[in-house]
Amino acid sequence: MDIPSLPTDNLYKFLAIAGVMLFGFSFAFPMVQIDELDLKYAVWRSDLDLMGLEIQIADESIKMAEGRKNLSSKEVLELKRNNQDNRRKLLQIKNKLRELDVIHQRIIFYRWFFVGGIILGAVMAFAGFGLWYYRIQRPLDIQLKKSRSI
Question: Is the whole-model pTM more than 0.85?
Fold first, then answer.
């Protein structure tokens, strides 16, 4: 099985094909990455909202219990445990927020990669095909036309 090789006989053709490949890669790769990260971002955002709701409910129950004057030692222990759980959940939320910031930064990077790669690929392809046509193909066509008229 023969694998076709890239045209290295002419720098312009190589530039054009490399531009087309860069254009295609810059379109496909970031889109896949952005879709995966957007999905992860949405899932983590909903987890974060759920944790916030749990903390709010726990805080309200603590406030209600504090409003009562005579608390048993068991209820005090339960309040302390709820307070520790709230602190743990708050740390989890802070960690999730940091992770969400990292995901957001990656999404921004991939969007810039998408735009930059498409622009660079289009310029390379346009320049390569244009230079190849005007500097190589057109003179060959003129030469062929002259040889046929002789």
Answer: no
